[in-house]
Amino acid sequence: MKTLTFILVVDDDKEDHLILQDYFSEIGLNDYLTYKENGKEALDFLESLPEQNLPDLIVLDLNMPILNGVQTLLQLKRSPRYKNIPVIIYSTSENENEKRKCLSYGALNYVVKPSTYNGGLAIVKYFGSFLGSTQLAP
Amino acid sequence: MKEIVKVSLENDMDLILAHKKAMKLCELTGFSLMAQTSIATAISEIARCAIEFGKNAVLILGIESAGTRKFMNAVIVDSADFSHKCAEALSYARRLVGDIEVIKSEKDARIILKQQLNFGGTFSPAKIDSFVDYFEKEPPMSAYDEIRKKNLLLQEFADKIRESENEYRTLTDSLPLMIFIVNTRGIITYTNKWLEQFLGTIPKEINSQGWQNFIHPDDYPSFAKTTSGSLQKSIPINGQYRIQEKSSNNFVWHMLTVIPLKNENETVHKWIGFMVDIHAHKLAEQALKDNVELKIIQSKLFANQEELQEKIVALNRSNYELEQFAHLATHDLQEPLRKLFFYADSLSIKFSDTLGGSGKSMLKNMTSAAGRMKELITDLLNYSQLQQQQLAFERVDLNITLQEIFKDFEILIHEKKATFTIDPMPVINGNPLRLRQLFSNLISNALKYSKSDVPPHVQIRHVIEDDHNIFHVKDNGIGFDDQYKERIFGLFERLHTKDRFPGTGIGLAICKRIEELHNGFISASANVNEFALFEVRLPCEEKSVSKQ
User: Fold this and answer.
1) Contacts of B342 in chain A (CB under 8 A)
2) Listed residue (B523, B516, B511, B539) closest to B391, CA to CA
3) Contacts of B239 (CB under 8 A, 6+ apart)
4) Which of B97, B101, B93 is nearest to B116 (CA)?
5) Which residues of B touch A93 (CB under 8 A)?
6) The model's pTM
7) How many pairs of residues across A and B have Cβ atoms under 8 Å apart?
8) Predicted confidence band at B388 (pLDDT cuts at 50, 70, 90)?
9) SS3 call for B547
């Protein structure tokens, strides 16, 4: 029976880490966040996890060094082990082409990083809604 | 028969000469005095008849060989037959010499007297030649004889010259080149047949008309200069000129050479000239020259292509840099700006109580400054994207486009109490997004640059003129000095301070670029405090549809 669930956020922007951390603290979910700075680190980390301990949600920034968001997304969706984990793209870019591309590669959603406090809050609540979803699985 | 001496028989003086020469030859050939007298008398008898009845009789004395035997012959020849008129003389002569023959032909009649030499074998050819010499060098037997002799010589020279001249004429006439002779006064005295045929003229005509009628007008000045110079200095003339052929009227390239002929005093007494057809040579030369020019042009073209290639590479590089800039603008510039907005907003919400009134006002100003920066970045990004874009075209109903724009400006229109007069708009080919941006910018300007005390009234007119859709967007605002009507389309050009009229100075530059991408043209005119008018011209049949 799987008990520990979490959200994996892959983003090289330290400030965005802090912002998300603050929000999750505010809504009491601080312990359910794990950060990795780029796609490669994230994949290595996922490799090390037992099957039943994989995250409920992966939040991916696009513009990252070493392995960027799109490349990471493609690797995740090609892998039988990870392809069913929901992935949400979390980016500053409002480029429609980029959005279409990510959705066609299998991203569940494309969320533009917030520029207002309330906007950020809504996003964090949305992310939080994924927690525990795997708990329902047998 | 070896001819020894000749006497023409015209008068009695000739008869005496004939007698004397005959006597002398008989003496030289060893006849006895009696035989000499007999033979000379017989010859004289016939000669007398020839003078009397003949036309142009000539006596020829000679020696004929027949095997070992040799004969002295006297031949009296005349173009008219006089033999029948001298039967008596003939019968008398027959008694004096061994053999007399009369031979008649169509050409002439000749009476031949023959007497065998006594010691034929002793006369070698050299000896016989010495007889010829003897008569040539023999002192004149009389003054008359001398005159006769000289006359005869002159006659022979004249014949030879005539013959030589005939040969020369035949030769020059048969040559495929033009030959002429000019005297020192420049008068043509001789031309060959080829020249007369080619030019279709005779020397007299050339002399009266001058050369310019036969030489290409472009070549004549050079011809005239060269010939007059050479004539003065008595040096040969060389040149290449186009001469007109009478039969075809075509100008044919010829090489002209004229050489001065000098007499023994070293003075020029005439000029001989000839002209050779060098047309084929000229054509080949021209073709060769063209070829060289072609090569030069080719190498220039090649250099141009290389330059073009370099420019394309540079352009690609600059396009790449532009893309990099666009990327930077979308992401790297917007990212810190977003955070600025976010923190300002978070501050004002979470720390509202501690900030107080002035703190909040500062935050508001900060957010507004960040907003202007965002606007600038968005405009710049738009503009940079337009630099590289090839637009996809489709049918665009501008009535719908305008409705959408009015919806965007709904609040502003309401605030400013703006009114519009709008013509029905056409459906045109173009890029919907960019056309909307174009009209949106113009309408936005019309609303923005209004007078503070007069509500804006904007007229949007449409006419078709010379296959062009022409749109006028005219306001009743503050206008601008007409001298700025071109400058305002430049990037970052602003005519007003930001305090009064905020903006980035990119809007009209974007409009101009959109027009260019639609093969159109935008222009402006204005009067200060009266109006600003923007004219947009778009071709009706938009050919750049293929740009897709």
Assistant:
1) 19, 114-117, 120
2) B516
3) B222, B223, B226, B255, B256
4) B97
5) 330-331, 334
6) 0.44
7) 31
8) low
9) helix
Which segments within A3-120 are labelled E, that is strand?
7-10, 33-36, 57-60, 87-91, 109-112
B342 and A19 within 8 Å at the Cβ level: the answer is yes
Quote the CA–CA distance of B93 and B38 in Å, as a whole number: 9
B528 and B547 Cβ atoms separated by less than 8 Å: no
CA pair distance B496, B478, nearest whole angstrom: 11
Average pLDDT, chain B: 85
pLDDT at position B474 over 90: yes
Report pLDDT digits (tens) over B516-545: 888 899 999 999 889 999 999 998 875 444
How far, in Å, CA of B64 to CA of B101, rounded? 14
Contact B182, B273 (CB under 8 A): yes
Euclidean distance between CA atoms B60 and B113, whole angstroms:
11
CA distance B80 to B84: 11
CATH architecture, range B2-138: 2-Layer Sandwich (3.30)
CATH code for the part of the protein at B157-329? 3.30.450.20
* B51 neighbors B15 (Cβ within 8 angstroms): yes
- Rounded CA-CA distance B338/B344 in Å is 10
Give the model confidence (pLDDT) of B113-162 as tens digits: 998 888 766 788 888 888 888 888 887 777 777 787 788 788 888 888 88
Nearest to B170 by CA among B199, B188, B197, B193: B193
**B contact residues 328-357, partner A, Cβ 8 Å cutoff:** 330-331, 334-335, 338-339, 341-342, 345-346, 349-350
Distance CA B262, CA A92 (A): 105
Taking the CA atoms of chain B, what radius of gyration do you get in angstroms? Answer: 59
| pLDDT digit string, tens, across residues A107-129 | 999 999 998 999 999 999 999 88
The closest of B106, B107, B98, B44 to B76, measured between CA atoms, is B44
Q: In the numeric block, which tokens belong to residue B222?
A: 């050079």
| CATH superfamily of the domain spanning B394-543 | Histidine kinase-like ATPase, C-terminal domain (3.30.565.10)
The residues near B188 (Cβ < 8 Å, ≥ 6 apart) are B180, B181, B182, B203, B206, B207
pLDDT tens, residue by residue, B173-217 = 877 788 888 888 888 888 888 888 888 888 888 888 888 888 999
pLDDT of residue B167 exceeding 90, the answer is no
Residue A122 in 3-state DSSP?
Answer: helix
Contact B342 A95 (CB under 8 A): no
Neighboring chain B residues of A19 at a CB cutoff of 8 Å: 342
A63 touches chain B (CB under 8 A): yes
Token reading at B468 = 């062009």
Per-residue confidence (pLDDT) for residue B327, from 0 to 100: 67
How close A131 gets to chain B, by Cα (Å)?
Answer: 25
Binning chain A into helix, strand and coil, the percentages to the nearest 5 are: 45, 15, 40
Summarize pLDDT for B61-102 with one digit per residue, the tens: 999 888 778 889 999 999 888 888 888 888 888 888 878 988
